[in-house]
Structures are given as structure tokens and as C-alpha cells.
Write a structure and sequence with these properties.
The complex is a heterodimer of chains A (300) and B (435). Chain A is mostly helical and 300 residues long. Chain A is built from 14 helices and no strands. Chain B has 435 residues and is α/β, with parallel strands linked by helices. Chain B has 2 domains: 201 residues, D-Maltodextrin-Binding Protein, domain 2 (3-Layer(aba) Sandwich); 172 residues, D-Maltodextrin-Binding Protein, domain 2 (3-Layer(aba) Sandwich), CATH 3.40.190. The chains are: A mainly alpha (300), B alpha/beta (435). Chains A and B meet through α13 of A and α3 and α19 of B.
Amino acid sequence: MTNLIATLDPASRAASRGWSDTTIRNVFVIPTVLFLIVFNVFPLLYSLGFSFTDFRASSKAPIHFVGFKNYIDTLADPVIWRTFSTTLWYVIVSVAGQFVVGFGLALLLNRPLPFKGLLTTLLMLPMMLSPVVVGLFWKLIYDPSWGILNYALGLGKMAWLTDAKLALYAVAITDIWMWSPFVMLLSLAGLSAVPKHLYEAASIDRAGKFYTFFRITLPLVAPILLIAVIFRTMEAFKTFDIAFVMTGQPAAELISSRLYKMAFQQWQTGPSSALAYIILIMVLCITNIYVKYLNKAKER
Amino acid sequence: MRMKGILAATGLILLSSTATYATELTILWAEWDPANYLQELVNDYQKETGVTVKVDTVPWPDFQTKAFTEFNSQGSAYDLVVGDSQWLGAASTGGHYVELTDFVKAHNLTETMAPATMKYYSEYPGGSGHYWSVPLEGDAVGWAYRKDWFEDPTEMANFKAKYGRDLAVPKTLKELVDIAEFFNRPDENRYGAAIYSQSSGDALMMGVENFIFAYGGSLGDFATYKVSGLLNSPASVEGLEDYKKLFGFGPPGWGNAFFAEVNTAIAQGQVAMGMNFFAFFPSLLNEATNPQAKNMGFFANPPGPRGDDFAALGGQGISLVSYSQNKDEAMKFLDWLVKDETQKKWAQLGGYTAAAAILKSDEFQNATPYNKAFYETMFKVRDFWALPEYAELLDEGQQGLYDYVVNGNGTAKETLDKLTTTWVDSLKTAGYAAE
């Protein structure tokens, strides 16, 4: 065999050996790193610089360094705090809902069921749709005059999307509908990985279903559930499209919508960069807390 | 030989692309019917001159963002833009628009165009004599109503018995509120009026402006930046109170409505009256989009209780983008656009010309059921702040008004007092001597 390779031309000899580390570095790693630097790291640092200035992208006025003024003003703005608390409540409701519905569906699908494959595929459809389409679709469902939800539940002319007390929950329900399948999918993967012999042993020991669930199923699925929760928390914190399309109710305004208005409608580039960094830091903090728990769960 | 062929082909491509580049203009506008009319109009220009003019459209919610992103990046993708009146401050002081004062004077546009359109679509700062656009699509807020409901003998008798006067097109906004109250019958899925209520964009502010202006109030003095005592004057407060009252006679869940929602409510036979920009009225006469088309009537925004007669301005002017590579060609296009015959064709196609002579002509006023109301409105319009910081003022206004009108928090006086303080603070922060 060695002799056969030796008879080939240099290019064919290299191909027969597979790509070298240098080639892989040149073809895959360097372009990726360059791409990340140009499109992620550079804009990140550039906007960090803007966050300390009074720059307005729509103006040609000279840019002044203002120190931490944008950060202080942003954190002192009651509208920002209102949108932060709204966002936090939205994240709690939405992620909790997705967790309950998604994990519940996974437990259901983890049993022998007829047409299980078809059912799983159908249940995953919502998360394959565009968020804007989902938002518009649910806007019709919620319509007080002709929406099917009020009709089906006999709720009269309930104004889901314009009522200050309901609008946020209406958006959260839509988000739960759309993203529960994601939690379901991950949970299903976790559930199917639980060794069957553990259940057999529990059965021999006459363990009840409740005990089996909390002592075997949940602890073993917990790490993957936490991963799902991390992803969904980060995404829920950044929710923009669904809420933007569905409601204009200020009481349901999320922090991403406020950021969009400041950055691209009012062109307050400096303050909006500061707000973006505050959001980034908050998401990082929340994620770190989750990761800490994830590591603990793995150790167990 | 093969190499020579490739070089020749490359040269030909470069030559043709250069030629195309010099004879093509691109206009940015929002995605709506008038943009289609404009494309139809400019096709004539192409026939006359050989210069291709393309109207590139962006959905309304993204229009401002798209335009200013282009301006901020100093992109030359667009030669002309049909921009909102509120953009004048930001676009002129930001250096994004080419000043057209000489063009305006050379074509005597201050005389030939409706005065309000030059004042609000073109001049910045107000009263300075500096012009930045040519009024293209005149527009303002007017009203559509159900003629069949208004002319129903039973309704007329019942109305007279209740209010002591004939049921007819309202002569004042107070009468309009009464009519809305009369027709508001939720049990019959029939409501009084569909008005602007959306908190994003400028919807709610546009709607409220009609009442504040016509009740004798004001958003402030645009020349001196005085807001206190004007925005929160008793007249403004009374106007806002009646706007909220009228909002209560709208369809259920009516807290997120702009032009599309208003036309939908009318088409579904839900409301007796609907507030909307004139540019959206053509679809109400189209039976394919409105089953009530035969029953539609239109009127201008009525005066307030003390006879003040104003309406909120919509519409746009066309401006030359500073970063265009085809400025000379674009100026030639504007020369063609302001010609009388072009403006006449523009009106015939469905565009709302701002040319005063055409607006005043019987031919224009009788062309559609709403043109007369449009003509009446275009000579009594007032607008929002056009400062570079208009978007902040608008957002603050929308948030404050929404909390009162839709969410029902506080009183009109508290709302306008609070908004006055907010606007004065914002104006001062931006460097204006506001009070």
C-alpha cells in the first residue's frame, strides 16, 4: 500500500493522507476567526466606544466624550426601568410556561403512542414558523371583534392586546405556543437517554411513579432541561419581533423594543449603545447563574 | 484572439453599465398606492428623456429607519427621497438633503403650491426662507362616513329626538362626538367612530392633533420653543378630553389602530365614521376592498367649538439626497416634476398634488367624492415639531397620550401638564431655549 501511494503525484499523495492541521487551520479556522473579528468583535468594541459619547448617527455634529453619563442617565430613566421590569416578568412567565408545556409534552411523547413520529413533527411546527408570521397570526386570533379565542372561550369582546393588564400575557402565551416545542425536543432527548435499567431496578424495589419521577427521571434530565432554560431565557430576554408586531401597548413594551426605538427611530446612538451594554451584562449575569446550577446538576 | 474577445466584451459591459448609471434615477418612498402612481407618472419622464426613474419602496414601519440608515451611511443608492415633513430638521441640519431654495425661487413654488405644503414639507427652520423639498404628495387627516346610516329616516328621526338637530355631516367636532355617541351600539356590533390610537409611529399624536388644533390649542410655539401654557392650555385640555370621549365610541380593543385598522373597521361595516389620511380613501371606494363602497361619504375635519378650523398634516415632499451621484439629472427631473402638466397628470393618476391652481379647479374637486374635502383641508393644516429631535418628542407624546386616551390613567390636564414638563426638559437637553 505504501508503495502504491509513493507512486502518486504530490497532490494525490496529500489527498490520500487527508487534510493537514495547517490546511484545516487555513481553510476553516482563520476565516471563521476573521469573520468573528470583523462582524462581532469590532462592532462590539466600536459600539462600546459610542456608549461613552453623545454621538447621534443621524447628525454630523461633532462627537463629544461624556464618560459614564449615558449609563447613569439610562439607569436613572423610569421608562427604562419600567421596560426592564416588564421584560423580567415576561421572561419568567414565558420561560416557565414553555418549561411546563414543553416538558409535559415530552413526558407524553416518551410513552408508546400511535403515530408518535407524526405527532412529534406536528408539535414542532410552531417553532419552524417566522416569529413575525406567528405574531400576525395570533393578532387575528386575539382580535376582540372576530378573533376565534374570545369566541371559543366565550370571553365576549376581551381586548387581549390593548388592555394594559393583559397585553404582556397575550404575547407570552404566543411565545409559549411557539417555543414549547423547543423545550419538548430537548427534554425528549434527555428522557430517551435515561437508562432503562434504572426504571427496572426502581420497579423491582416497588418504587412509586412519583418517587421514580423525582428520584430518577428529573435528576437525570435536569442538565439538559437547564440547557433548554438557558437558551430560552436568553432568547426571551431579547424578544422583539413577536411583541413589536402584536401590540403597541406601552405597558407591554419590552427592553428590546425600547432599544430599537432609541437606536433606530430616535438615533440616540450613544445612549442606545449604553443600554445595549447594560442588557448584555444582565443577560451574561443571568446565564452565569444558570451555568453554575448546570455544573452543580452535572456533578450530582 | 480569445483574450481580445474577452477584453472587448468586458469593455462593452463597463461602457453600458456606465451609460446606465448616468441615465437612471432612484426614488425612495414608502410602500403604498401613491408610490405606484408615482412610478406610473415617471414612466412618462423615461419616454421623454430616456432616463429611467425607479421608485423603490419600503413598508411604512421601516421607512424612516431605512431612509436614515442610508443617510447616515452617506449611501448613494437613492437620488431622491419622498420624506415625511417631520424629517426636515434632522435631514437638513444633518446635511442629508440638498438645499433647494434657489430651485424653489426659480420656479416660484411659494406662489404656485398650497402655502401650507411649502411651509411644512419644505421650509426649515420655519420662516427662514430656506427650502429643502418640493411638495409631492399633499395629505392630511379627513373623515369618511356611512351615508346610508346618516340618511336612514329612522336614524334621522331618532337622532333629532335625542339631540334636537338634524343628523348630517358634523359642522363641529362636538357634533361629531355626538354622532359617534348616537351610533355607538355595541350590542349590534356597530360603533361610533374609528380613530387613530396606536402608540408606535405618529398615529395617536396625529389623531389628537386634530382636536387640539381645532379646539384652539397648540403643541407649542415652534419659533420660540415655548410649550408651557400652550400644550397644556384649557383649549388643548378640552380637545384631548373630547378625543378620549370619542375613543370610547370605537370598536372593542381599539387601542392599536392606524390607517389600515380604520379602513378595515369601515369595510367591515363596524363604524359610522372613520378618521384617516386622504391617501387611504381611494380604497374605500373600491368595492373589491370595501363592500360599503357605494355608501361612503367624506368630509374635512370640522372646526372646534369656538370656530378654530385646523387639521393634522400628513404627506411628503421630494428631496434631493446629498450623496446622490446624479444630482444634475435629479434636478432636471424636479424641473419636469413641477411643470403644470406633470402636476395635472399626477392628480389624474391619483396623487395628491400640492399645486394650488389644480387643487382649486372644479375638475380636481369633482374628480372624486373626497377631493373637495381634501382641497378644504390642505388650506387649514398644521403639523408636529420638525426639529432634528422630533422622534424623541413624538415618542414622549405618544406614550403620555396613550396612557390617558387608551389606558384611561389620569386626567387630560394631568397628561398635558406632564407632557409639557417632559417636552420642555427634552428641548432644553437638546439645546433649545424652551419654556
